[in-house]
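Q: Sequence in, structure out?
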Amino acid sequence: MIYNYDFVIVGVEEQLESNDYGERTRMFYKALAKLNKYNVLIVCSPVFFIKRIKTGSISTKFKRIYSGFLYTLYEIELGVHLLTFNSLFPDRDSFISKLNKKIISKKLQVLLNDSKYILWLAKPMVKYLIDGLRYKYLIFDAIDNLMEHPQYSKKYKYIQRTYKELDDKSNLIVVASENQREQFKSKNIYLMRNAVDEIFFREIKYQKKWKSEKKIIGYAGSLQERINVEILKKISEQIEDIEILLVGPNISPNHFRDLYSCKNITFAGAVPFEEIPSYISIFDVGIVPHVISEFTNSMNPLKIFEYLACGISVITTPISGSEQFKDYVDICFDTVQFVDCIKNRLMNPREANLLKEVASQHSWRNRVLEIYEDKLKFVE
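A: Exactly. Output:
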């Protein structure tokens, strides 16, 4: 083993790390590191070397500690290292791809030949990386039911099989919503809802200036099939003098094809994570127009937490987790009610300082302290 680690997290997406994207696992490990209880290793999902050439490397962002065949070790900060792997072949259901995964898995086993660490698996698709590892305690963070995710439909059987294996094998399964408990037979399930990253509590030094002087109805997050396009279209048609600002990568362009001709809808595209609070701060209302499905019922959207932290009135469909904020957000059960609530909040916004106070109770620091006191400190 190159270094002695107490806590190993497997399955972070390297591109998200490179772009400093606000993803659950990243925010969790940043808060975990601040406990000063563990030396942490982050193991990224392997990246096909041709894709790495196209998308760029994180080699200039962090201090390189060590390089070997297929892998590189970086220091993110004191007590936190990041391990990346080059995949020689694309991830496909082929013999050569499976052999490639075995080679990477064996390499990780050699690097982590100590059995004194807690292992946290953040992504079921890379379970092959942990097969053969000698850890002392396995935690599977089962955020979102990926069997219901439309973008993983072709991997349904693999994910279903992996969930079953992890259900049997894990010492602890962490879920983000109460509805996820039904997925697993394990009796050791821990609810850890999403939370707010510390950057949303900092003073915004640079206020975004937007070209429109109209009221802004905003959404911040990945644009994909979970968004109810019909709601966005009705807002566009039925509320005057507003602009709908969608901030985030458009992962499913075809899903939004009916909106591209709407003159009062702007697709801002992906923005650096540290700039998201400044975008949200110009929203007059923050919306979560998600469809209600098996997939969204397994989620606990970060957006509600982030909007509240910025003091923005929130309108949402009845997604899982919204009920805990029923006194502070407007939960709408149909499109008509959604549009009416926006009209009301444009005229009568909620008290910003109260919303910020509510959000402050849901920081990632608090989440990490809770799971440490409830579970982690008892792992010997």
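The mean pLDDT is 88.
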